[in-house]
Each structure stands twice: as C-alpha cells, then as structure tokens.
Amino acid sequence: MTFRAHILGAAAGGGLPQWNCGCENCNLARRGDIPAQTQSSVAFTATGHDWAILNASPDIRDQLARTPALHPTGLRDLPLKSVLLTNGDIDHVAGLLTLREQQPFKLFATAEIHHVLADNPIFAALNPAFVARKTIALDTPVEIAVGLTATLFAVPGKVPLFLEGATVQTDLMGEQTVGVHLRAAGKDAYYIPGCATCPADLAARLDGAAAVFFDGTLWQDDEMVAAGLSQKTGKRMGHMSMSGPDGSMAALAGLDLGRRIYVHINNTNPVLRPNSDQRRTAQDAGWTIGHDGMEIEL
Fold first, then answer.
1. Please, which pLDDT band fits residue 227 given cuts at 50, 70 and 90?
2. This prediction's pTM
3. Span 4-297: which CATH code?
C-alpha cells in the first residue's frame, strides 16, 4: 500500500491571484513571477487508484484536469471514491456543484455540515441516487477510500461567513469546523485547513504524525488590515497566524512530525514569495509552504 497526499489547491478562499485584488502577491502571480494557486483542497490515497478528496474547492474542475491520477479510467469510471468536508465555507463546498454530473461518490461530513448543505436547495443538484451523503460522528474512524480511514475531531473555529449573525464566536468547538486524522499503511497524517487556536490537547494529538497539513492563512494577525484590504484580523476570520508567540509555528514547534506543510494560504501572505524573509523563517522552522500539484508520499 502507498499512502500519498496530493495538494490540489494550496490557497485560501479567492485563490492567488484573487480576481479583485491588486496586492503585491496577486500582481506578481498575474505576471507569472510567482506561481498562481487554486483554492484549498487535498486528495489522499492508500492504493494509488482509490482517492478521497478533502474539501471541494470552487476550482475543482481545473484541479482534477491537472491531476492525471484522478482522470477517468473509463467512460464513467473514476478514481474518486469520496469527498469529505471540514466545514461549510464556500471555498470548501462550492465545488460540489461541479461534481453534479451523475457521478457516484460518497459525501462525508458531520451532521452540522450536512445541515448547511441541506438548507441550501442548490445542492439538491447532487442526485442522491449517485451521491450518498454519509454522516460522520466526531472521533469515530470511517473508511473513506480503500485502505484509508478518516477520523474527524473538533478544532476551534466558527460558522461559515454566510451564516454569521450580529455576534460571532470564532473559537467554537463542535461539528462546524473539524480537523481530519487520516490513517493508512500504519501511518498517520492530519489535515487542518482552518483553526482559530491550537490548544495543548490539539498539539498533543498531532505529535508523532508522518505529516500535518495545517492552516497557513496569514503570516500575522493584522496582515490584511495593514495592507488596507480588510478590517478583519485573522482571529476574526477564525484563523490563527503562522508567526508570533500565539502562532502555529510556536504551537507546534516541539512536536515530533515527519512533515509540516502549510495549506489554505491567503493571497496576502508573504510566504508565497520564494525570496521573502517570512518564507525563510518558516522553512528554518521546518515548514514546507504547500503549493498546487505538490505530492507527498508518507
């Protein structure tokens, strides 16, 4: 068995370049000076021919087209066996509408995330005769592709932007934002594209993993505010930063991890520039900056 991960999209919502953004990174990407990145999604396999996709990005059509391992093997035969959602954010569920073409697969999520889909009638385009919606309870292993199990667990986060009310709690613990523990061939990997804080019990859970794919949205909390692009901090959006004493590099520094890979990277993040001081700092701390098309054998 071969436990592999393939990053379909490494960017946060909006991708790189973001269509309406004229920040330094977006302009560099438009000129081809730094690689463009599509929105957040990673595919995993334990066999090389049965795959599960974690989060259905709005860019999933192009992501699948660029990934030969996920191309059809017959008229309607596909290596894609399932899609698993880690929250109900638009950048993680909108791609389901692209997967409406009468193709059988299983759709895994918590009950709360399934409710988000059920409350929006447009997702009825996923014909239940082909797409079986499977509810996963927290902390319960489920096989999502041959030889590949997933266990969902709560991480601090918030409800999707389109469900926010007047008051927003960004460190909710429950079924609305989850991390994924993937296990195959006796090895463990974790996928956590959204995380507001990293409490000690979460860090302890990750210790010893072959790989951790972690929320890399912002380098610093006020990054978008300082750039004049938003009034929201990373904390307000439900994402912890990479840097600083409360950042993910510090929180996970003492762990025994085979690979540390940042995903869900916002278009403003300076680590997207290969020669930036911030990227060198992250790499010196043992982190890899994920990018579209990156494949890792675990």
1. confident
2. 0.96
3. 3.60.15.10
